[in-house]
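S1.2 Input.
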Amino acid sequence: MMTIPDIANLTPIDFAKIISAYFWSRIKFARSIKPKGRLRISEASLTEELVYQFYIMAANKILPVKIFQSTNEKVNGSDLEILLELDGSVVKLPCQAKIIYATQRYGALYHKVGHQLQIDLLIQHAKKVGGYPIYMFYNYDEYITPKLLKVSGGIEQLWGCSIGSASEIKNKFFKKRTTPPMFRDMHPGICWPFYQLFEFLNTKEADKGIANILNGFDLTSLTRYRIDEILDDPRFSDLTSPEALGFVDHFDKAPSLLINERKLLQASSEFNPRFRILITKDNLNSGSLQFLD
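S1.3 Output.
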């Protein structure tokens, strides 16, 4: 059973665990509605929920993050950039989100935009910006193995949100394969719980820790951005307070988080993230915000 910490003592790891458990239960509920399809749920709606919950935590000065929204109207609702501050500079993790289908397979993993695979657009964008491409999966599965439970401390719901290397996923599941993989095909080994990313961020050699769940993650091969380059990027508007990196000072900007479904129907011919989430180690360790031991 998962114990929910007091809101005043919530850590980034706690938050990642809670949102993962929420997505697991949310998808389970949606899949239980009969007939199938009556309750809509998608990677775009859950990505919006993820960003909004980050926003709420920052607005209440509970979670230290900084959120940006693209100024480009032609964006993809399930495209996201996770920005990590490591050793004084920022690295980019372009991220494509996918939800598990009622068939227990990631039915949209082989999605094409025009004649190009979506995963290729993601990898191409990562090369362009010197980043590390990842997939984020929103999960629910009825069959959880002891191996999975060992990884998540006996709590199956913590697999509700997972991440994995896009390059490794392509090498493993895009060669001589036409059937989308199932949850058990990718977890664990290729993909790992989302909250583990935050656990490694708080270690002295964070990049080596991250490489344990993101195969081939190597800071020496990534472009290192200054914080001010991220803050001053005209392609993204800052939804959070300029006075203190990581905290929102008001809710006036919150409505802009709402997704325009009509615009999302127009598929972009390139990876085009709607949101950025910046996480810095300095803020992760500031004030009363501490990671779990």
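S1.4 Remarks. Residues 9-284 form one domain.
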